[in-house]
Amino acid sequence: MKRISTVVCGLLLLVTAAGMARAAAEEPTVYVIQKGDTLWGLSERFLKDPYYWPNLWARNPTIGNPHVIYPGQRVKVYPDRIEIEPRVPLFPAAPGAPRLSEEPAAERSFLVSGSEGFLMEKGISPAGMIITTNQNRQIVGEDDIVYTDIGKINGARVGDRFSVYKKLDPVSHPVTNVIVGEKVVPLGTLQLTEVEEKVSRAIITKSYQEIGPGSFLLPYREKRRQVPLRAAGKDLSGWIVDSQTGNQAIGEGDVAFIDLGKSQGVEPGNLLYVLREVVPDQQYADISVEKLPPEVIGALVVVSAGETTSTVLVVKSIDTIYRGDRVEMKKSR
Is the dihedral of CA 282, 285, 291, 293 positive or negative? Predict the structure, then answer.
């Protein structure tokens, strides 16, 4: 019995030691930023990966301009990541003001409303269409009755829900001029209330915009959802092909579309960086300069991915972003 107790105690000591070792491995090294430090330098110095810095920039909401980090800020260095603590204010907060957390931001996720839309690529067909409305009205909204070309022959049943969309203009690639898809926007949702062989009666359950005959339907999916950040599986390069609104200028909080999708390895939650080429001025150079390192001017997160295109949300920008700007995804080494 005494021998068994000794063995048990030994196992407990081993388990405890292993737990302490894991905790020690997770315990970060704290570094205080010095004058002249850069995100590039921190990534290279601590992670041996200079290309990690855009990831570091996008994941830390306390950093505005990626080139501006402040002496005195603390960073926590883990084996696989770097976390930057919020900058401490120069003056104490006024009495009663909310206290800023001293902990670094947790892993970020982004709430999307479902109003972002997407590019309908070639070969993708709607589940059906609204073929007419009650009393042949051209515009309907919530609680109105419509009729669709979805029936029992399509496997439809009473209670089935669908999302309602509208097609806009085809979108051409800014470099190749090839049509990459048709821009579509969500209009609302409907639910089937009566199903016949080839047609059905439905009620509009939600309306975001005006709905009318000719609106097309896709199987329903929850609109509001959290999109957590996901590590990139490979290096990719592509282009911004359009914005949700069609505006040329794109900024933080805007939605855009890119020419990369599932077939290239893109997944919802991936981060991409917007690059702007720097044109050398030869009159001030003693040597021929053909190309300079590009400037990182923004960060995007993929909120939904098609086969060859994706819908992205601009989560950071330090300069105006335009259709035709290059984007890049970097796998963490």
Answer: negative
- State the Rg of the chain over Cα: 26
Please give the order of strands across the beta sheet that includes 82-84: 29-32, 74-77, 82-84
18-77 pLDDT, tens digit per residue, is 444 444 456 777 777 777 676 667 766 666 665 566 666 666 655 655 555 667 777 777
Beta-sheet strands, E only, within the chain: 29-32, 74-77, 82-84, 109-112, 118-120, 128-133, 145-148, 161-172, 179-195, 200-207, 216-219, 225-228, 236-243, 249-250, 255-258, 271-276, 295-305, 310-317, 321-322, 326-329
**Model confidence, pTM:** 0.69
Contact 324, 175 (CB under 8 A): yes
Torsion angles phi and psi, residue 46, rounded to 5: -95, -30
